[in-house]
Amino acid sequence: MNVTAVLRSEWAKVHTVRATLAALACVPLATAGFTALACATHEPGAGAADFDPVHSSYFGLGFGQLAALCFGVLVVTGEYRGGALRMSLAAVPRRGLFYGCKLAVVGGLGLAVGTVTGLVSFLVGQALLGEDGVGLGAPGALRAVLGCGLYLGLIAVLAAGVATVLRGPVAALGLLVPLLTFVQPILGTGSRAFRVTRFLPDAAGQGVLHATPWAGLGPWSGLAVLAAWTLLLAAAGWRALERRDA
């Protein structure tokens, strides 16, 4: 079976399952929706000297990220229900080809939807910021839009890798949601722990959304750290798939 055929098969598995489509659709809806709520309460002209209008457009990303995590997890764990994985591996005996194409579809869809999410959230946020809003030509604005797509695509692949190791949606989301949603925001950027937590996947990757200097990693170094996490966990998933029976 060639790569194109396997990619089509993996795409068919995604767009014929309502749960995965719903999770994917919730990425832009949640991100732009919560961003709109936050920016609508902003008083034009009242921004502090360090106010970052670009980053304000991504207030809702944490909520959209939850949907991206669910998407990556559901695409993988759906294979473990009803013996579907055995059927998939019977059709595609080369596990590396099967796994690689699945991650390619997850990452490609995450990137595409993430980029749309980045653009919509930016435009909605800036419109609601009034006179404090900026355009796509502002320093760091276009980078944030494209970076949002890269961030969400990598997060979806990372989630798929973890789900391949743990096999169950409850176990995978039970690990990913607290680690990528609560740890860094609760500890904050002013604590000593931030010296460590800034290297977590979410804190590192979201540096690309900042147009002004902040306490975390730089935009591209942060994305590189997130990519390293993603590669590591995707490799762990591949090893688990190779060593275990279907």
From TrEMBL:
The keyword Chloroplast does not apply. Residues 1-38 form the signal peptide. Keywords: Membrane, Signal, Transmembrane, Transmembrane helix. The chain crosses the membrane at residues 58-76, 97-124, 144-163, 170-187, 220-241. This is ABC transporter permease. It comes from Streptomyces buecherae. The lineage of its organism: Bacteria, Bacillati, Actinomycetota, Actinomycetes, Kitasatosporales.
